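Supplementary Methods. Inverse-folding protocol.

Structures were first reduced to a discrete structure-token string of length 147. This string, shown here, constituted the complete conditioning input.
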């Protein structure tokens, strides 16, 4: 199972609540799946929701997969040492379609334009498969402290 995770990629949000919501959401999808079949897929950067999702994955012995644009390699926060990563395009957002095609389910915790665009792409994917989106998508809002 490939669990996609999107959300805030800056540190200015309620990180404690986000971690709780993210852990609950991941456990909801994981269920009885074998530990070695779980991949947590996010945006490669070592900050915000991607970092939290990877930390949860490591704590649970799940694989970590980073998918991002080349620009992530130059991010001030660095990249998370994922088990595997894919670089698609140069600018953030170039990787969105590849990311959505790669994942089976999606969790969004807060986030801005790109996160919401990826949710819409994911909804289109699930709709095209004639599946019930409520079984594949979890979205939660958290307080944003930034500008």
């Amino acid at each position: 199972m490939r669990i996609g995770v999107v959300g805030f990629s800056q540190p200015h949000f309620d990180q404690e609540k986000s971690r709780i919501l993210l852990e609950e959401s991941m456990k909801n999808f994981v269920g009885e799946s074998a530990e070695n079949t779980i991949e947590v897929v996010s945006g490669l950067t070592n900050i915000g929701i991607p970092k939290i999702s990877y930390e949860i994955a490591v704590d649970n012995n799940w694989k970590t997969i980073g998918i991002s644009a080349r620009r992530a390699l130059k991010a001030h926060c660095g990249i998370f040492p994922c088990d595997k990563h894919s670089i698609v395009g140069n600018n953030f957002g170039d990787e969105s379609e590849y990311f959505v095609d790669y994942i089976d389910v999606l969790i969004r915790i807060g986030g801005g334009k790109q996160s919401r665009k990826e949710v819409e792409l994911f909804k289109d994917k699930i709709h095209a498969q004639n599946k019930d989106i409520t079984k594949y998508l979890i979205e939660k809002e958290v307080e944003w402290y930034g500008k």
